[in-house]
Specification:
single chain, alpha/beta, Rossmann fold, 4 domains, 5-stranded mixed β-sheet, globular
């Protein structure tokens, strides 16, 4: 039997059904959303979690113009078998605020207005409620809010009692860019007289007049939402609501159903790898089901099925570039406190804080605000609740790689050094194939030589470990694991086989760091580390690792010393 196509990069619901793509059924949430008291909803998720597809799902479910397609589009899914009374009963007014250029105030203004005009043109093409003359007069208004007011004033439904459902995709895309680079302009456009605030005030007025009945907007962060609150205080943010933790993205069960459908061999092994690589996001402090980024998972499946092996690149370039998000969030306020938070996340992969639900630029940007923006962008997630605080962690391996890339860039920028990537990659290949640890240590030493002695004053074991992680991530030879728990023990670092690459050796590294003045302690530290490593060797998980080579590595200042430990 011919299998359905994988919907990687497809965000139009009708195209998924008509062109025979696989759809992971999320339609039950239509009924849940419709049952709420709130009719005006904001819902936030990181990039590539399926927001645009869900907006498209709502568009086809509620749009009057799609009434004759209902059985074909929804018949095989939950909502088709359990439809609500409001199916195909609304006029849909949809806006997409992505791709607005923000290089100048005038360009941002024109871009936002153009998106509003586009949404209204599409509306009239679908429903033909306005004559050409009336449409032209609506679109001739100067500002986006004046266009909206004129639109609502002229609105006259052809179906009795039919109202408008407004859908907004990427509601905060362009404003998030402004926050990072031009805060004053952001504050102006969402202020009391700003054109973005006025746009939402027009929708609120139409809701009060009974013209707009429902509203659903998706985005990434609540920063813009909070700035609009006084102008659109009818909106409800459901981002952290337990009931909607699994509404976007894929659950572990959904992932395994996908693997079974495509008849993946060694399902349990592949599922375990996918859990380590892509799973981990939790969007409600009360939830327990961790969520996969749907884009990441579909990318993997698309690559795997086309070549029958794991992709060399674990994520596509769109997600891989997200280290720029860390940078833009960090430079909103790169205070020592934020630097400390970021260092903690990168070196320890965890931090503690609270989720900021309402951002205010009338008060200082706090470390909790910084951590919260990383959370909303999917760069950290909830690990567990500790009394009134939340312990956050990096959600999965591929997000760790994004941090490592950021750390490498920050090292080169902060210390104004130029790292020879080609030499590092060659040394890693030699390590992986020939067990040449000496060559790899020499490359680390070269990087340390680029740093001044003054720079090294703030170095410690964690930073040396981050160099071993970050520089090793330049090559696809290994999966890198830091302080992974193995029956109560926590080896500092492991370089393990990474599919589909074929290398000869895996490595367990115990790392120590001494300042140059403490070099007399080298032998004692080596002996202590050796006893520690011998405990690791008693663990069955370690014994089962094929072609494992074990090293103690101690740096004194810029010089590396190493010893291979041969199991008894």
């Amino acid at each position: 039997m011919t299998k359905k196509k994988i919907p990687y990069g497809v965000s139009n619901f009708e195209a998924i059904i008509n062109e025979d793509y696989y759809y992971v059924d999320k339609t039950k949430y239509i009924r849940v959303l419709e049952s709420l008291n709130e009719k005006h909803i904001f819902f936030l998720r990181p990039r590539k979690f399926g927001k645009s597809l869900f907006i498209s799902l709502l568009q086809y479910y509620y749009g009057i113009e799609h009434r004759d397609k209902f059985s074909r589009l929804f018949g095989d899914y939950y909502i088709g078998k359990n439809p609500t009374s409001k199916a195909n009963s609304y006029y849909i007014l949809k806006f997409d605020f992505s791709s607005i250029m923000t290089s100048s105030e005038e360009e941002t203004f024109r871009g936002f207005r153009k998106k509003v005009v586009s949404g209204i043109k599409y509306f009239n093409k679908a429903y033909n409620l306005f004559s050409e003359e009336i449409l032209a007069s609506i679109l001739a208004e100067e500002t986006s809010n004046e266009i909206m007011l004129a639109f609502f004033n002229e609105f006259s439904p052809s179906e009795e009692n039919a109202k408008i459902f407004i859908l907004i995709d990427e509601y905060d895309h362009f404003t998030n860019e402004l926050i990072s680079f031009r805060m004053t302009e952001f504050q102006q456009i969402v202020s009391k007289n700003g054109y973005v605030r006025k746009f939402y005030e027009a929708i609120k007025e139409a809701s009060g007049n009974g013209i707009v009945d429902r509203f659903f907007a998706a985005g990434v962060t609540p920063v813009t939402l909070d700035s609009l609150t006084s102008g659109f205080n009818i909106g409800k943010d459901l981002t952290l609501d337990l009931r909607f933790n699994e509404m976007l993205g894929f659950t572990d069960a959904e992932m395994k159903i996908l693997l079974a459908y495509y008849e993946i061999e060694n399902i349990e092994e592949v599922a375990t790898d996918l859990q380590n690589l892509y799973n981990g996001s939790l969007f409600s402090p009360e939830a327990s089901e961790r969520i996969y980024n749907s884009n990441m998972l579909l990318y993997f499946l698309s690559e795997f099925l086309s070549r029958n092996k794991y992709p060399s690149d674990l994520i596509d370039s769109n997600i891989a570039s997200d280290h720029g998000k860390i940078k833009s969030i960090f430079y909103m306020n790169n205070s020592p406190e934020h630097q400390q938070k970021l260092n903690q996340i990168i070196t320890e992969e965890e931090t503690i804080g609270v989720i900021t639900k309402k951002f205010s630029f009338e008060r200082p940007f706090t470390p909790d605000d910084f951590v919260s923006l990383l959370f909303y962008n999917g760069l950290i997630t909830i690990k567990e609740i500790e009394y009134a605080l939340i312990r956050f962690r990096i959600p999965n391996y591929v997000i760790k790689e994004i941090y490592w890339d950021f750390f490498k860039e920050e090292i080169t920028r902060k210390f104004n050094i130029n790292i020879n990537i080609s030499n590092l990659q060659q040394a890693l290949q030699d390590l992986a194939v020939n067990n040449n640890m000496g060559g790899w240590i020499k490359e680390i030493e070269k990087v340390l030589d680029l740093l001044s002695n003054r720079d090294l004053l703030n170095f410690d074991e964690k930073y040396i470990k981050m160099l071993f992680i970050t520089l090793a991530s330049l090559s696809p030879a290994f999966i890198i694991k830091s302080e992974t728990e193995i029956n109560g023990e926590y080896p500092d670092l492991m370089y393990l086989f990474r599919k589909p690459n074929s290398v000869k050796f895996q490595f367990l590294l115990e790392l120590k760091y001494l300042k140059k003045g403490d070099s007399a302690q080298l032998n004692r530290i080596m002996e202590k580390a050796e006893q520690q490593v011998k405990r690791y060797l008693l663990k069955q998980e370690i014994k089962e690792l094929k072609n494992l080579r074990i090293y103690i590595i101690v740096f004194t200042g810029k010089q590396g010393h190493f010893k291979e430990i041969i199991p008894d």
